[in-house]
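Subject: Protein record for review, amino acid sequence with backbone structure tokens
Concerning: The relation between a protein's sequence and the shape of its backbone.
How to read it: Take the token row as a discrete description of the fold.
Enclosed: The protein record, placed directly beneath this head.
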Amino acid sequence: MSETHPTRDKMTFWIAFLAGVAIVVGYAIYTLWPREPAPADLSALGDAPKLELSIAGQGQGKVVITLRPDLAPQHVERIVTLAREGAYDDVVFHRVIDGFMAQTGDVEFGKADGNGGRAGMGGSSYPDLPAEFSDEPFVEGVVGMARAQNPNSANSQFFIMFAPGPFLDGKYTVVGHVTEGMDVVHAIKRGDGPNGAVTSQPDVITEARVAD
């Protein structure tokens, strides 16, 4: 009997040791493993302007975007100006990639009754905007400004994220967050052409208005 005690003590030691290691490893994984960023806290932005989009097509209904002048004042001012001018009315979602984003806002070539073949290649009559990159992550519902290769080439086009896109973080300007109607966004018709182009009967913004 006396010879079994050391064996039992060793076993107890190793069980306790391995349990401790498991706790440390578990904590390290929990704290260090990449996780999806938490949704932005918009409670302090109650007085921020809101862009209300009425959408027709497969995505039928209203989408409300709380704009972020605290992150991108020049880009928000541009969107507000164009919306108040009616420039976004009847503009299509010309590029929609499943699992990624829906792009719209080409007020030059993206009209529903216009030259659909060139949608996505135009902008407004206003000059392009300097980049206003921030630390705000691109997660589901975030609205970013589309641009060409030049970081300072955003103008009127914007996109709404279907899902997180961390590869965009710090490289594109965040201008807002969808705070109502994300179900409508998810229903927007997907593209079947090159690079997500919607080649037939794209969904359309029938009206865009600003609610202060």
Notes: Residues 19-35 have pLDDT under 50 and may be disordered.
